[in-house]
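Trying the structure run again after the queue cleared.
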Amino acid sequence: MSPLDALIVFAFVVYAVAVGLRNRRQASKNLEEYFLAGRSLPGWKAGLSMAATQFAADTPLLVTGLVATAGIFGLWQLWIFGVTFLVIGFVLAGAWRRAGVVTDAELTEVRYGATPAAVLRCGKALYFGTIINCVSLAWVLFAAAKIAEPFLLWHEWLPAALFGPLVSLVEAVGVPLTIGGLADPEVWVKTASNLLSLGMILAVVALYSATGGLRSVVATDIGQMTVMALGTLAFTTFVVSEAGGLGAMTAKVHETFAAGGPGGILPDEILAFTPGRGKDVTLSVLSLLGLLWLINSVSDGSGYLAQRAMACRSDRDARTAAVVFTYAQILVRSLLWLPLGVGLLVLFPPDPALAPELVQADREATYVRGMAELLPAGVAGLMLTGMLAALASTVDTHLNWGASYWTNDIYKRFICQAWLKREPSGRALVWVARAASVLTLVIAMAIMTQLTSINQAWQINLLFGAGLGVVLVLRWIWWRMNAWAEIAAMVVASAVAPLLIVYLGDDQQPLRLLLAATASTLAALAAIRIKGPEDRARLVAFYRRVRPVGFWGPIAAELGERANLGPRRLARALGAVALCSVTLFAALVGIGSWLVGSPPPVWLPSAPLWIGGLLVTGLALCPLWYRLGFGSNGTP
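Done. Tokens:
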């Protein structure tokens, strides 16, 4: 790493720490200031913060691996979440904000009543705050180790007297933390170096996120998003230029992989956005892509997405946040990564002798290899800073979000209020939150040592969350949902996921997800049938407070409202979701096809007609979905 690169990285570190220290007094007042920034965020700022969190250091590596092994069509398993994000925005964001809670786990005792609601709140805090959150954080840290290895060479910079004991320690532990794994002859030296890099990075992130709370997280997120976007644009430009330009890059894909690329996929399969042209797309894969936006653990925004919505200053800002996030997340970053992923595949062709189970990890590593070998001084520093910024923006959110469960839902609700029968002070809760952030890091680091690829961790997380999506949405739009249904879904999801991992391989992930979702949803429906709806007074209080859309006819009637008002509001919101989704995906496929030379669908042989039709259609729908979602009669 050149002195210029080091200076750029150092400037980012100083900026992040300064932001945390600047916000520490305001964040220390109480939980709402610490976790929700006093509910004062404008929509654009909350949306960019969401996007920065998911513009993570791990995701470009995952995308690079998927483009090589599954083709561009394989990225729909990421893109389909755009529908989820728009549902959150147009249907649920305002309701999250009006609920007035600090965490989604706390919502359970607002929506449901009595002992089952308390049990569910505790269970969700542990399930999401520990299992889901720590696994997500673990794969981010796994990616960080890959990124740091070629650039942060502590074994070359530090004297042997200081570095040697660390090498001996990691060798004694026996867990490799390198790109090459145990096959690398310098595995323990590199592991020690990577561990030191991670420790320093995490110390900086923990310092500013734990001191300044969500205000610091959001403020640094916006700077991090900017740096990452600029760095990625520069990286993409160098890679495409090295490949000879966009047209030459596409031609080289056809030339290099005429006989088949990784996994035997042909050139058109690598570049196509749509199935066909030889793709063997099974019914389970298509079903998964059609339902994945719903069968996931954040289908209603639960987690840090809801946290940003709840932190907004108005309902309109909460909707704006979701739309800004969706377009930044799905459209902008994908258009940066698509030519980058294809270019890296051309410049660093896969080794045909590589074992199949190692291909994904090898392709993920080419992203870091490209940074190290292709970027000049200054640009390399900008890109490295961008990757570290992306890591920081994801880690700080997971620390802040995970700590909110342990603090608000475990310590405050059950340890203090239920067990010790006292109300903790706001400052005491903030200190508990800071300690919980450190505990979250320790658990995530332990999980990270067991991973072999980012894709592996991502697929496991999807599987554990697949059974919860339907019931999470139903609790907002259907008055008959009860606490037992959510408990049943969570228990079945936790029991079924490990069994599916054991008995169905990774190549059957679509079937695993569909089975997990089906089993959990059926268990929830059975609980609804057996136990019936919650207490009527509880439902009336929830409806009056949150004003949810959907099927609340009997409850709305008790408050003197028309029974069909909820379904009409839901239909309007879903109309905005559908039209906005068409605009989003039309722009993505149209511009993306032009960038990488993707073939049109088999039923439309003209590429210009395909691209032009998509862009015109997407643009024409903009005023329609804006009027539905943000007009004077938009969804409240």
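Residues 62 and 549 are 36 Å apart (CA to CA). Worth checking whether this holds up in the mutant runs.
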